[in-house]
Specification:
The structure is a homodimer.
Chain A lengths: L4 H10 L6 E5 L4 E7 L9 E5 L5 E5 L4 E6 L21 E8 L4 E3 L6 E3 L3 H7 L8 E10 L6 H16 L4 E5 L5 H11 E2 L4 E4 L12 H12 L6 E6 L6 E6 L3 E3 L8 E3 L6 E4 L2 E4 L14 E2 L7 E5 L6 H9 L4 E6 L10 H9 L4 E5 L12 H8 L3 E2 L5 H14 L3 H8 L19
Parallel strand pairs in A: 6-9, 6-10, 10-12, 12-13, 20-21, 21-22, 22-23
Antiparallel strand pairs in A: 1-2, 1-5, 2-3, 3-4, 7-8, 11-19, 13-14, 14-17, 15-16, 17-18
C-alpha cells in the first residue's frame, strides 16, 4: 500500500482498507465507491475512490468523515504487488504505455495533471481488465503526447513488433490524445500486423476530477482480442460511457478540445462499434483478419519534413526557408480543393527542381483535394505538387515522413504517396462522410 | 447580345432569342431552360441555359438540334444593356464582387473555371434578383479567393463603408469560398455597421458544369434587406437548394472541399436560416438590429503576422524564424486544449521578451482552448502566451492582424484579444455545438 501519514492514519481511524466499499462525507457532498491504492509519488492527504461509473476521483480528506460500507474482497491484482495474475485460458494482451491522460495522475491539490502512472498502475486502477485477458504491461515513455516525436513512433513500433513476435494476441497502446492520430498513422505505415493494435487514451475535461480511461481501456482490450488485425484508435463514441468506436489509424483525428467523443473518422466511417463488451464491425468495411498478414516492421522515416498552413498573408519566404534549411519534403495545408496564393507557386517550382516533394492537403479537412478544377490548382499541379487525395493533413505529414524514409527519389516518393499503403485514402468520393 | 459566329448562326437558324425557353437535343440527352446571354470573353460554340433548378449550364452546340419551347418576355434587365432597372419602391442593395466561383465563368471547352464575370453580369445571370431590390453593382477585384491578401480586406471594407454612407440598405459581397471566412472575420472587426453585410459565394463540384450561385445570391439579398445588421456568411445549408444559413462572420469556416453546404458555424449555431425567401433568426441569438450602430470603419491592420501549425516533428526554429524575420505576432494552431512540444516554449519566452504576442488556438477546431489543465499548458501560459478561447484559428489570425493594427503594446494587444469585439468567441462552454 502506498498511502502514507495523514491518509494512512485516516484509513486506520475509520477501519478502511484498499478494495473496501467506503463513503466519504464532506459538509455538503459525499462520495461512495471502492477505495483504490494510489500512485507512489502522489501527494498525501487524498484518497482515490472508484465510483460505480468507473471513474476514479481523488477526495481530499481534510474536514471529512468516512464510513465503511462493505469490506472488499481481496483485490484480484494484489495491491502493493507488482505481479499481475495469469490465467492460461485467457488471451495474452500486451499493454504499452506512452503516457498521456489515460496513464496520468491528477494532482488533486492543484488540479493539474501529470503523466505518472506506470503501465501496471493502469491495470491496478482498472481491475476489471483482469476479467478479459492476461497482461504484459510496460511503460515505454511517460510523456504527454504533445511531446511525442517521430523518433518515438519508431521505438513504439519496434516495441509492439517485439511483443507480437513474443506471442501477444493483441496490443493496446495507452497514449495521450493530443497527437494520438499522428502516432496511429505512423504505426499504420510502419507495421503490417497479424493481430489487432489498438491505441487508446482518455479525454478529461478540466472541470471534472475524473478519468474516462476505464471504458476506453476495457474496450481496447476487447478490440485487441478480436479478429480485426489492424491499427485502430479506440475512444468514446458519445458523451457518456455507452459505447466506443474503433477508427482506422490513418483516417482519424481529434476534433474537439475536451469532449470524450473527440476522435472522429474523417472522410470515412468508424470501422467498428464496441458496446456491452462486444465488437460490431461495420459490414461495409472489408477488414484484415487476424493472421492474414505476417508481421512486418518498416520504421525508416525522414524527420525533416515541413508542415505548412496556407493563409491570406502567407509569404513565399516561408517556403523558401524550408528549402534553404534542407527540409526533404513539405506538406501544405491549402485552402478549398487544394490551393495557395499564386505568389507561392514559384517556390514550389524551386522545391521540385531541388527534388523536394510537396504534398497538397486541405484545411477544410473533409472532402478530396482536386487541383484540376481551378486555374490555381492547375498551376500548382504544373510545378509537380502531389495531391493528398482525401487524407487528413496529419496523416499526410506522417506518410510523407515514412515515404521519404523509403526513398529519396522524387518519382518513387510520388508513387508511394499515391499508393494506398494502409487505407489512408478512399478510392471513391467521400461526400457523404461529413461531420460524422 | 454577345453571342457571335457559330452560336449566333445557330440561334438564327432555330429562331432562338435571349430570354426564350428552349430545348437543345444531343444524341442521348436534352436540356430545357431559358437561353441566357453570356460573358463577353467566353468561347464561341456554346449556349448558356438557365435550368429550372436555377443552375446555369453551358451546352456545346456541335452535333445538337434545338427547338423553341416558348418565346420569352423581354428580359427585365435588358440583355446587352449596362443599365440595371430601378424601382423606387424597393430597397437599395449594393453588390460588391471580388471574384471567386460565384462570379466566375466556366470555360466549357476545358472545364476549368476562371474569374471572369463583372458584377453586373452577376445580376444578368440571375435575373430573379431584380424582383427583390435595386442594385448598385461593382467589381472590386476579379480574383479567386486564395489570392486574397490582408490589404484587400482593407479595400473591401472601405468600399462597403462608402456604399453604406451613400445610402445602401444592405451590402452583398460576392467572394470565392476558399478564404471567405478570413474575409468575413476581417470585415467583422473592421466595420461597425447599421445595415446587413452579407458575404456569399458558390461551391462548385468539379463533376457538374453548373453554378450554385443562384440561391446563395438571392438569399444574400433577402438577408441584406433584413433587420440583421451584422457581417454574415450566407451559403447553402444542405446538399440541395432547399435553404441557406447565415453564419456569424467570425464563427464560420469552410469544412469540406466540394460540398455546397461546406460552411459551418464552429462552436456556435448559425444565426439564421433562409427558406422560401424568408429569414428566420435563431431565437436564442441576440442580434444587432438595423440602425442600432452608427457606421464605423477601422481598417488599421498589421500584415506581418505568422500562422503556425504545431506537429510532432516541429522545430523551435520555426518560431525563431518568425521572430528573426520581424513578425509582429504569432498565432499557433496547437494540439488538444492548446499545447505544443515543450521544446518550443523557450522560443515563446523569447517572443514575449521581444514584445511579440503569441496566441494559442487548437487544431481540433471545436472546443475551447484551456491551458490550465496540463503541465504543458501551464508552462505555455507562464511565458505569456494568450488563449484564443474558442475562436477558430483563422479568425484568431485575422483578429491578431487587426489587434496589432490598433496597438503595438503587448498588454493592449492582449486586452483586445481577450475582448469580444465582434462575437468572435463564446462566453460559455460550447460543448454542444460540435460538428453541426
Amino acid at each position: 500500500m502506498t498511502y502514507k501519514e495523514n491518509a494512512k492514519n485516516y484509513m486506520e481511524n475509520y477501519g478502511l482498507g484498499i478494495g473496501d466499499k467506503i463513503k466519504v462525507n464532506k459538509e455538503d457532498i459525499s462520495y461512495t465507491g471502492i477505495l483504490l491504492d494510489r500512485p507512489e509519488d502522489a501527494d498525501d492527504g487524498y484518497l482515490v475512490i472508484k465510483l460505480s461509473s468507473g471513474y476514479n476521483i481523488g477526495v481530499a480528506i481534510e474536514n471529512t468523515t468516512a464510513e465503511l460500507i462493505e469490506k472488499g474482497e481481496k483485490p484480484k491484482i494484489g495491491f502493493g504487488e507488482t505481479e499481475i495474475p495469469h490465467d492460461d485460458s485467457k488471451q495474452n494482451i500486451s499493454i504499452v504505455s506512452t503516457g498521456g491522460t489515460v496513464s496520468s495522475v491528477i494532482d488533486y491539490r492543484t488540479g493539474a495533471v501529470h503523466p505518472a502512472f506506470t503501465a501496471s498502475d493502469l491495470v491496478k486502477a482498472n481491475p476489471e481488465l483482469l476479467d478479459y485477458a492476461n497482461y504484459n504491461v510496460k511503460a515505454l515513455y511517460n510523456i504527454l503526447s504533445e511531446d511525442m516525436k517521430p523518433e518515438y513512433w519508431v521505438k513504439a513500433a519496434e516495441e509492439i513488433a517485439n511483443d507480437i513476435s513474443d506471442g501477444a494476441d493483441g496490443v493496446v497502446i495507452a497514449h495521450g490524445t493530443d497527437t494520438m492520430h499522428y502516432t496511429s498513422a505512423a504505426l499504420s505505415f510502419m507495421l503490417k500486423t497479424p493481430v489487432p493494435i489498438i491505441i487508446t487514451g482518455a479525454q478529461r475535461s478540466s472541470d471534472r476530477p475524473s478519468s474516462d480511461a476505464n471504458i476506453n481501456l476495457i474496450d481496447s482490450v476487447i478490440a485487441a482480442k478480436s479478429d480485426l488485425a489492424e491499427v485502430c484508435v479506440c475512444m468514446h463514441g458519445s458523451l457518456n460511457d455507452e459505447y466506443t468506436y474503433l477508427h482506422k489509424g490513418t483516417k482519424v483525428r481529434k476534433m474537439h478540445t475536451s469532449r470524450r467523443d473527440t476522435f472522429r473518422s474523417i472522410n470515412a466511417q468508424p470501422i467498428a462499434k464496441i458496446q456491452n463488451r462486444k465488437v460490431s464491425i461495420n459490414p461495409e468495411y472489408n477488414y484484415t483478419k487476424r493472421g492474414a498478414n505476417e508481421l512486418e516492421l518498416n520504421t525508416s522515416i525522414e524527420e525533416k519534413v515541413g508542415f505548412i498552413k496556407s493563409f491570406p498573408g502567407i509569404s513565399k519566404d516561408y517556403i523558401e526557408y524550408h528549402i534553404d534549411k534542407g527540409y526533404k519534403g513539405l506538406v501544405i495545408e491549402g485552402t478549398g480543393l487544394g490551393h495557395v496564393p499564386n505568389d507561392l507557386i514559384d517556390s514550389f517550382k524551386r522545391a521540385q527542381d531541388e527534388n523536394i516533394p510537396v504534398i497538397m492537403t486541405s484545411q477544410c479537412l473533409y472532402g478530396r483535394v482536386n487541383m484540376n478544377v481551378y486555374s490555381t490548382g492547375r498551376n500548382i499541379l504544373d510545378v509537380g505538387v502531389i495531391s493528398g487525395i482525401d487524407m487528413t493533413p496529419e496523416t499526410t505529414y506522417v506518410k510523407l515522413c515514412w515515404a521519404l524514409g523509403q526513398s529519396d527519389d522524387y518519382a518513387e516518393v510520388k508513387e508511394i504517396m499515391q499508393t494506398n499503403v494502409a487505407g489512408e485514402f478512399g478510392e471513391k468520393s467521400t461526400i457523404k462522410d461529413f461531420l460524422n
